[in-house]
């Protein structure tokens, strides 16, 4: 009988991090959370930063907890790191941090972003070169602002390591840029697997800061002796493996996708990341207008996606209500109360006037869809990016459009979920138009997949069944790529097929 494989997944998010011990035995993956810790950006002098040393301390604590959780005599085969996208650490040749690590929500990127968007010819060239639209959090804008405001940084820094790259360096001692995280930067060549020189030149990023990205499965080396001391024999042969560094890519890898490519993937959390897998990028004027980002898998294929603002809307709105839920029971009660509020998705044709009621069935549906959209939030509004008050930002948009604000928190929850469902559906419709595909179902993971109201709103708006999985997406994808590198599993398709049998899912059929 084959021995079990024990692997550690370091999964760092913008609000929390965790270390998970994964066990692969008899073609089944089991998870054990051994350490969880909070994460938050820190503000100083009008700018936002990450506490990188604090995160590193938590990672080390988590790895020690993983070792303590191993069966007697077992060893940790490997470790992999995934994080949120775009943020980075600037170091010298020795790996010493030479500049504070800004958080992606810092407003410093607005000026370079607006400059690019207002220079149409340049914007078209950058999109054609990188396949990534102009969004405020892009690494390209962050780096451009750093170089412009602190020119001496080009003398101090010799390497730019994105967050999973940097933690891989701390673990292994090897500096390497990973392919999936590199594709979030607006600096990678969309038609190849190396950096785009036109993009680097435009944003004035020194090419020497970056090396050709490695693909997932690349073994960076053994865990450094600073962690694997003689007192920890379980760590003596632990390999540090480059998994897809972007947590969304890992989450997509975990989903039991059908081989026919007819699945839409939805990773729902602070952001709603809607996309699909493809062998070609989606480029051109229509893709740019739709803000399609051609992210890459760790293996090199494409993962066209659109970033919808997500539950950030709800998280921000809750701050303005003393009645916000504090535990699972209160959350369930809030969602139940919101579900009782009539949805504009269930609009009665008679309520829209005689013109709708007297029209043909197909035209009534089209008119209802437009009316629903006109009474929902425009989730693409940049005012929702990081407002002082999310509730005030929502109320302001509604007022501009002549719409009434909800009366209570349950009303806001209903409005937000219905609006996000419509936002998801709009993206899917765009993907079908640009790709020529017809999608058959939506695979949904992340915190939002537990929100029954959001799942149903997405099914209703899109007309597609939503398969909501009880799945630790980013962690499972992280571990899957480690197991493939260790040759415990043949490839991703084999892992998906094996793991699908153990997944619990809830299917939401369209009701409208």
TrEMBL record:
Belongs to the FGGY kinase family. One of its GO terms (cellular component) is cytosol. The keyword Transmembrane does not apply. Residues 6-248 form the Carbohydrate kinase FGGY N-terminal domain. It comes from Oleiharenicola lentus. InterPro entries: ATPase_NBD (IPR043129), FGGY_C (IPR018485), FGGY_N (IPR018484), Rhamnulokinase (IPR013449). GO terms for biological process: glycerol metabolic process; rhamnose catabolic process. SUPFAM superfamilies: Actin-like ATPase domain (SSF53067). CDD domains: ASKHA_NBD_FGGY_RhaB-like. It holds the Pfam family FGGY_C. One of its GO terms (molecular function) is ATP binding. This is Rhamnulokinase. Residues 266-485 form the Carbohydrate kinase FGGY C-terminal domain. Keywords: ATP-binding, Disulfide bond, Kinase, Nucleotide-binding, Rhamnose metabolism, Transferase.
């Amino acid at each position: 009988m084959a021995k079990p494989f024990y692997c550690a997944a370091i999964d760092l998010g913008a609000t929390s991090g965790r270390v998970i011990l994964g066990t692969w035995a008899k073609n089944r993956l089991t998870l054990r959370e051994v350490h969880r810790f909070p994460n938050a950006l820190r503000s100083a002098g009008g700018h936002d930063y990450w506490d990188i040393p604090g995160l590193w301390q938590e990672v080390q604590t988590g790895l020690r907890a993983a070792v303590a959780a191993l069966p007697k005599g077992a060893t940790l085969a490997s470790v992999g790191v995934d994080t949120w996208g775009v943020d980075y650490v600037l170091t010298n040749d020795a790996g010493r941090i030479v500049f504070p690590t800004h958080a992606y929500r810092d407003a410093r990127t607005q000026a370079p972003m607006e400059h690019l968007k207002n220079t149409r010819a340049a914007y078209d060239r950058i999109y054609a070169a990188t396949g990534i639209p102009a969004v405020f959090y892009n690494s390209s804008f962050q780096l451009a602002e750093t170089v412009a405001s602190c020119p001496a940084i080009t003398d101090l820094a010799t390497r730019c390591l994105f967050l999973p790259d940097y933690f891989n360096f701390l673990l292994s001692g090897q500096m390497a840029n990973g392919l999936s995280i590199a594709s979030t930067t607006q600096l990678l060549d969309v038609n190849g697997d190396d950096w785009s020189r036109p993009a680097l030149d435009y944003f004035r990023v020194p090419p020497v800061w970056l090396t050709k990205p490695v693909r997932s499965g690349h073994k960076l080396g053994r865990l450094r002796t600073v962690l694997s001391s003689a007192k920890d024999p379980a760590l003596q042969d632990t390999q540090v493996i480059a998994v897809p560094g972007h947590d969304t890519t890992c989450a997509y890898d975990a989903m039991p996708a059908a081989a026919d490519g007819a699945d839409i993937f939805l990773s729902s959390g602070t952001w709603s990341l809607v996309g699909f897998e493809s062998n070609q990028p989606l480029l051109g004027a229509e893709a740019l207008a739709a803000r399609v980002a051609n992210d890459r898998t760790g293996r090199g294929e494409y993962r066209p996606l659109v970033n919808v603002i997500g539950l950030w809307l709800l998280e921000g709105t809750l701050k303005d209500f003393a009645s916000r839920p504090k535990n699972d029971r209160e959350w369930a009660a809030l969602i139940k109360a919101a579900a009782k509020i009539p949805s504009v998705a269930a609009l009665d044709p008679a309520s829209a006037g005689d013109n709708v009621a007297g029209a043909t069935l197909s035209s009534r549906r089209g008119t209802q869809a437009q009316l629903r959209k006109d009474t929902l939030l425009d989730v693409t509004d940049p005012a929702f990016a990081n407002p002082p008050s999310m509730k005030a930002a929502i109320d302001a948009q509604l007022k501009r459009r002549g719409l009434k604000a909800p009366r209570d928190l349950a009303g806001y929850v209903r409005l937000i979920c219905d609006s996000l469902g419509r936002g998801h559906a709009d993206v899917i419709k765009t993907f079908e138009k640009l790709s020529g595909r017809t999608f058959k179902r939506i695979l949904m993971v992340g915190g939002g997949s537990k929100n029954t109201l959001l799942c149903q709103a997405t099914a209703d708006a899109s007309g597609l069944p939503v398969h909501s999985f009880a799945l630790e997406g980013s962690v499972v994808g992280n571990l899957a790529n480690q197991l493939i590198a260790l040759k415990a599993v043949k490839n991703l398709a084999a892992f998906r097929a094996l793991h699908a049998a153990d997944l619990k899912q809830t299917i939401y059929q369209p009701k409208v």
